[in-house]
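Good morning C.,

I know you're traveling, so I'll keep this short. The sequence:
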Amino acid sequence: MKKDYRAVLMTAAVIFIVGLISAGCGDKKTGGPPPAPEVAIVTIQPKPVLITTDLTGRTSANLVAEVRPQVGGIIQKRLFTEGSDVQAGQVLYQIDPATYQAALDNARAGLARSEANLSAIRLKADRLRELLVDKAVSRQDYDDAASALKQTQADIQYWQANVDTARINLKYTSITAPISGRIGKSSVTEGALVAVGQSTALATIQKLDPMYVDITQSTADLLRLQRGIKEGRLNQSDANQRKVQLILEDGSTYPLSGTLQFRDVTVDPTTGSVILRAVFPNPNGVLLPGMFIRAVVKEGINEKALLVPQQAVSRDPKGNPQTLIVDAENKVALRTLALDRAIGDQWLVASGLAAGERVIVEGMQKVKPGVSVKVVPFEAGQEKNSASPKNMNPPPAKKN
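The tokens, ready to paste straight into the viewer:
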């Protein structure tokens, strides 16, 4: 019985091995070549694109005036609220005017005395001139009277100048705002002694609407821009060419656009950059002096820009950008690119691609140069639409 049982097991094992070999041989005979891998492609076509550049800068006030005393004395009153808006001519500080009022009164008294003497001296000189004709008086007497008249007239002018000076100094005891704007903190309080020519300003007034934005641009970028315009790659005939947009420190976009005013003609030797000044309306006071911002400046329109999706570009071991294309025979070819800049989720290609070429966007991991592929058009919004909250159905599976 044991021998019969072993014979049965050996026969079953042989039958099983023969079956496996037959199945393998059958697959080998019925199988064909593997299907061509499928890739999603975009066809590169030139189109006009607005070229912008992000530059950094800082805000500065439109007008800045430091409030300083023009006469010395003790501050009696401070007549403004720190951080408030003031108007040109508004009184900000009051200096003790007593000594300046006394100087004005003294000058007026001297002027009145000289004017009182003038009438009598003029009459005396006139009489002596008539008597001199008849030789009733000496020439010396007339000359003395004429000289006294001129001296009195000079005294009147002198005292009139003193009156004007004293009046101006008295007026300067009321320190007024030279411009309209927002005033900062006061560096002095009531009772402080101020002097003409002191180094510290009493306060600073800044006009915040409109606001200046000083943007730095490297000379390398400036030369590249000039070269692009000269070669015809950039068109600056757009009516809104001088419009500038601001990105604030928190990443938000400033709602009002500004206007590029001028580009400085001097290069800063320490940074190798020039200053671009833009003017922005600031009615709500959002912009404050000294804020760090990013400005989006329009360089021009590239009428024949070639854009390729960023996901279609990879890097070789040396860091050079490259992409895969599908040629006319549906075979994969490698292209080394020169990229200008990123525009949204695409690269602006400077060289390496031609209009009409088909760039592989999806499926690059499954192919290599020289391989034949099956192409399907790439739909950029497919993933975004499927992930939208409005579309509750699961996205379709990608083809391999």
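Safe travels,
E.
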